[in-house]
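Record 1 of the preview.
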Amino acid sequence: MGGSLGSLGQNLLGDLASSVLPGVISGLAGGLGDLGSGLGDLGGGLDPTALDSGLDTTALGNGLSNGLDLTPTGSVIGTAPDGTPIDNAVLARGDGAGVDLAGATKPDLTPKLLTTADGKPVLNYKGEPIYYPAAYPPDFFKNAGEQAANWRQMTMASDSPMQIPFEDLYKFRQGGEWDMQRLTGSVDANYIDYATVAIGIYGHSAQIPVDDILYIQNAYAGLKSNFGNSVEFDKFYTHLPVRNVYNTYKGYEF
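->
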C-alpha cells in the first residue's frame, strides 16, 4: 500500500507540475513518494469496516494487514477511553502501544447544521442547508489553515514566492482523512457539499488565493474524478461541477 501511495503521489503531482503549476508542485512529488514509502513500513492500511464494527485488536496487532486505505501517520482516527489520541503509529504497534484499542471511540459523525457567525444556515447552490460531521466543524479547518499560514510566515522570507501547503491539501484527496464525504469508506450524501466547503475554509485560513485552490481542485478532478454526464460543470474550471466551485467560495466566506 505504501509503495502504491507513493507512486500515486508522484504520478498525480508529476502530471500537475507539468500542466498546471510549473515549478511549484514538482518539488512535492518526491516528498509524497517518501511519504508513501514510509507508510509502507506500517504494514498495510486501516480497514474502514473494522472501524464501523469496532476496533479489532487482533487485526490491529497484526499490523493492519487486513486494511485498505492507510491514512498518514499522525492523523488521529479515534480516542482511547483514557483520552489518548489514536493514530496509525499507535495502531501499527497494536496492543504493544499500551493503549486500550478495544475501548477506543470513533470520531462523532453526527450531522450538524452549518451556520454563519450570526446563526443563519449556510445554503448550497440549490438553496438547501449544508451539514458537517460533528467531529469536523469549520473551526477544525480554520485552525489547520491558520497553522499552515503561521508556519509559512515563520519559515519563509517575506519576499519568497507563495508556498502552497500541499501536505495538508493532500489530506482532501478522495479517501483522505479530510475527505468529508468519505469518512466511513463510502460517500455520505450528508457531507458532499461540506467536502468542498471545508477546502475553502482551509484555503482561506491558510491565505491561499481562491483561484489557486480552485485551479488545483480542477486539475485533480480532471485526473481522478468522474462526476457523470448529468452534472453541470463550471464554465471556467471545466473539470469541476458548479456545485463544487460554489461551495469552495462559500468556504472562503468563513
